[in-house]
Structures are given as structure tokens and as C-alpha cells.
Amino acid sequence: MDQLLPLDTVFSYSNSGYVVLGVRLRSKLGTYLRPSVLLIDEVGYEILERGEANLVSQVISKRYEKGSIILTSNKSFSEWGQVFADEVLATAILDRLLHHCDVISINGPSYRLKNRLKNRLRNIEQATEVA
């Protein structure tokens, strides 16, 4: 089983490849640890590389029972192993997130898609009236 890397040796993926964050990581993590509420939007929109998943795990672990997190995702909890590239890591993250939380599950058509379809129908109706 892989273990989380120490803060000074965690890698992060960038467009130019993997970069050792080292000491700078401590100050960067502080950015995510300071707010009383941290919003993490669209978890699962992109599959994370192993190093990225470790960074997210470190933020969640360090905020555990110290700061609130609001998180949005269109992935079910059972899919998080794929998102974080590791079932064990995803389970550890979920364990901390779900311990003191309220889960609000919203099912139904996408609000954005619904508006887009309305606009498309309106454009078709307008084009039909002109013709």
C-alpha cells in the first residue's frame, strides 16, 4: 500500500511535467488551510494524477475537524477511487469528509443543460417564424 509522501517531497503535475514543490508546498497548503470554509468545486471533473491526489488528501487531512469544506461533485462515492487513482486514498478522503457532514444529493436534469435546451428551442422557434 502506498503511503502519503512527506510534505517536502510531494510532487505536483503541471503542463511542463512533475515538479517538486518542497518547502514552497507548506506555504501553498496554508492557502487552503486558512479559510474557515473551503469550497472544492467539481471533484471528478478530471481524473487526478497520483501526486495531485496526494495533495488533495493532505489538504483534507489537515483541515479535518479544523475547518469546514463544501464540496461539489457529479461522481458517486463509489467512483472516487477512479478520480483519485487509488481506492485506499479515496476511502481515506471520504472517511474524513463524511465523518461530520451533511450530504445533499441533487438528482435530476442539469440546470445549465436545461437552460441551453430552452435557448435552442427558442432559437428554432424564431427561425421558423422568420421562414
Work out the radius of gyration: 20 Å
Q: Structural class from helices and strands?
A: alpha+beta
Average pLDDT figure = 79
- The share of residues in helices is 40-55%
* Pattern of helices and strands: EEHEHEHHH
Number of helices: 5
Distance, first to last CA = 66 Å
Beta-strand portion reads: 15-25%
| Rough outline | elongated
Instruction: Describe the main β-sheet briefly.
Output: 2 strands, antiparallel
Number of strands: 4
Strand ordering within the main sheet: 1-2
Low-confidence stretches: 1-21
Describe this structure in words.
With 131 residues, this protein is of the alpha+beta class. 48% of the residues lie in helices and 16% in strands. The chain has helices spanning 22-33, 50-63, 80-83, 87-99, 111-130, and strands at residues 11-14, 17-20, 37-43, 68-73. A hairpin with a 2-residue loop joins strand 1 and strand 2 (17-20). Helix 2 runs parallel beside helix 4 (87-99). Mean pLDDT is 79; it is low at 1-21.
Kindly summarize this structure in a few lines.
This protein has 131 residues and is of the alpha+beta class. The protein is 48% helix and 16% strand.
Which descriptors apply to this entry?
alpha+beta; single chain; 48% helix; 131 residues; disordered N terminus; two-stranded antiparallel ribbon; two-stranded parallel sheet
Q: What are the SSEs and their pairings?
A:
Elements: E1 11-14, E2 17-20, H1 22-33, E3 37-43, H2 50-63, E4 68-73, H3 80-83, H4 87-99, H5 111-130
Parallel strand pairs: 3-4
Antiparallel strand pairs: 1-2
